Amino acid sequence: MKDTGGTLLTLALQFSLLSFLAIGGAITALPEMHRQAVDVYQWMTSTQFAQLVAIAQSAPGPNVLIVTLIGQQVAGIPGALIATICMCGPACAVAFYIVRGFHHFRESKWAIAVQAGLVPVSVGLVGATAFIVARSADQGLGTLAITAGTFALAYWTRISPLWALAGASALGLAGML
Amino acid sequence: MTENVLVPSAVVPTVPDLFFGFAKIAISGFGGVLPWARRIIVQQRRWMSADEFNDLFAICQFLPGPNIVNFSLIYGSRVGGVAGATAAVLGLVGPPTVLMIVLGTLYSRYGALPQARGALTGLAAAAAGLLIATAVSMAETLPRRGLGAILIAAAALVGVGPLQWPLLAVLVVLVPISIARAWRMA
């Protein structure tokens, strides 16, 4: 790491900005994180990015903590802390001041319109997230089958998806992928 | 405490209660913390009614920033001021952040070993399946929102996914169109 200070500053700026763009949850900002981390700054490969997303999804905690893993890969523990604080701090501070004094938001027409208007955009962004992770993760028939099987399990059954995550890692560990 | 707008019958948590309550939510929350937040806050601890929970969460969903972090911040501040907000956010984000740093360190150190690489390949493929399931479940509400909603979602997916356009550019175009459309329909 030749320029740690510069890297930390870049992390801080990127995630502070991104925190305002994460509409409908941190998961909608994943494609932009991928674009920055893989294409713009070339901090990691697309495969590594998908693996970090998978680790974050398998661990407990808010989804937003994928940024902790990205920050950590890029600049160690300081990177992890800065990414986490910048992804949570600025936008939350703004949200806090917006909400003050508004206790019955849902009744006003503009609030309903904003809320309803954001839904289709966030649905599309979650779709884009799924596309990007699947494109990096599915490199052959074995991985495609796991993606399809996990989708089926999560979508059509009430079995905990943790079983799929565990089973898929076990198959990979056994060298079957 | 005078700002407490919650119903009087609700249990009002202390500052340590907030920290440990949100920490429990965070570390129980495999694959998303929202169901656990609802279970622990509404059913187990009775800090809020189900309606109050839904109302506050709905506000947080269209505010900037991570939803559940906003939720803990706003709820914590309503019942315990600055100390309450700090305790709730630190409880929610602190313990899992430490866990992520540990996992990230293991990944940097051992992620390239052949066995780990195999396991991670499987894990990533399964995670992709989960994300597709989330996207499809969310998309189910689109048809009753009309053709326009489907087209807006498709544009967001294609622009940010395959075309890899910057998120900001896509949002600046799509969000006003989508809100204007919702305004006319409201």
Q: What does this 3D model show about the protein?
A:
The complex is a heterodimer of chains A (177) and B (186). With 177 residues, chain A is mainly α. Chain A has a domain at 4-104. Chain A is built from seven helices and no strands. Chain A has helices at residues 4-21, 30-40, 46-58, 66-99, 109-137, 141-156, 161-173. The relative contact order of chain A is 0.12. With 186 residues, chain B is mostly helical. Chains A and B meet through helix 1, helix 2, helix 3, helix 4 and helix 5 of A and helix 1, helix 3, helix 4, helix 5 and helix 6 of B.
Overall mean pLDDT of chain B: 89
User: How far apart, in Å, are the first and last alpha carbons of chain A?
Assistant: 33 Å
Low-confidence stretches of chain B: none
- What is the rounded distance between the termini of chain B? 36 Å
Q: Please count the beta strands of chain A (DSSP E, at least 2 residues each).
A: 0
* Main structural class of chain B: mainly alpha
For the biggest sheet of chain A, the summary is: none
Number of continuous helical runs of chain A = 7
Which segments of chain A are poorly predicted (pLDDT under 50) over 5 or more consecutive residues? none
Q: Name the shape of chain A in a single word.
A: globular
Percent helix range of chain B: over 70%
Q: How would you describe the oligomerization state of the chains in this entry? A: heterodimer
Can you write the helix and strand succession of chain B as a string?
Answer: HHHHHHH
Strand content of chain A: under 5%
- The outline of chain B comes out as globular
Report the mean per-residue pLDDT of chain A as an integer. Answer: 90
Would you count the extended β strands of chain B for me?
A: 0
Question: Would you spell out the secondary-structure blueprint of this structure?
Answer:
The complex is a heterodimer of chains A (177) and B (186).
Chain A: H1 4-21, H2 30-40, H3 46-58, H4 66-99, H5 109-137, H6 141-156, H7 161-173
Chain B: H1 15-28, H2 34-44, H3 50-61, H4 67-110, H5 114-139, H6 147-160, H7 167-185
